[in-house]
Amino acid sequence: MTAMPITGTLRRLLGPGEPEVTCEVCFARLDAYVDAGVLGQDADALVPGMRAHLAGCPACSDEHQSLKALVSSA
Tell me, what's the pLDDT at 59? Predict the structure, then answer.
């Protein structure tokens, strides 16, 4: 029997396979995460679990992209 590839839907149902923050933590720490990334710092080390959360949460990912675009344009 061969292993079947994990589809995008199944991957979202199973979760990231690594620790992730909650939406509440994401919104509380998103400013610091974006600032660190824009400044070339290790944002993932500053807020562990944020990257995994953003990969699986469309609402938080949209907020992240919007904030990153706003900060980068300033």
Answer: 95
